[in-house]
Amino acid sequence: MFHGLGSSRDEVGIIFADTATALARNGIASLRIDFRGFGKSDGDTGAFTLERQNEDAAIALQALAAMDKVDAGRIGVMGFSFGAGAAIELAAAQPEAIKSLVVWAPVGNYHDDMLDSLGQRAFDLAARDGIVGLDLGWRTMALKRGFFDSLGRHDLLARLRAYDGPLMTVNGSDDPYRKYTPALIEAAAGADKRAVVIEGGDHVFHVYTPSRSLAPEVIEATVERFRDTLGKTR
Question: How many Å apart are CA 140 and CA 224, to the nearest integer?
């Protein structure tokens, strides 16, 4: 389970932790990680690049597959927002190892999405000074030029064409990233692909507002999908 940029393994509103509990009730083990520099993992966020994120994702897969009582032939991967990109790239790099892919509010174009989120000034400062401090709203962090340079080296739609397993996208109806759903669904090479829309949901499914939180719907759809797609050995 791969968290979004600036987040950590339990994710916003502890939606990842709650998903892990729901998966466990259905006999599905899960592994949540903090990418290096985030949460409780060591490392400097300034050294964060897409290549390092993908390396961490591959290490997590290797560790999970080696665990006792984990069936290495029935492993799925999921990611939230920016972390959905890591999930897509892992599935594309190792399609034989990933039996199912679920992405929540997925990033569709790293460069354009970060430009929209951070603004041109952040890109310009990183290019000029080599580093830029950012206020993401829920935390502050520093990113270096290497991160911004890495954004243009990864084409998620092209990568998704290398994955022919089941894919499910989950977006709130009011999530601006929903615009990527048609292209992601079209790019996926497999026949089993579906797009779930959570009515009334925003990019984080309103988990910051408990009275409006749609987390239970997201979790239920995810658990059902993994139960269906991981239920049989290859």
Answer: 35
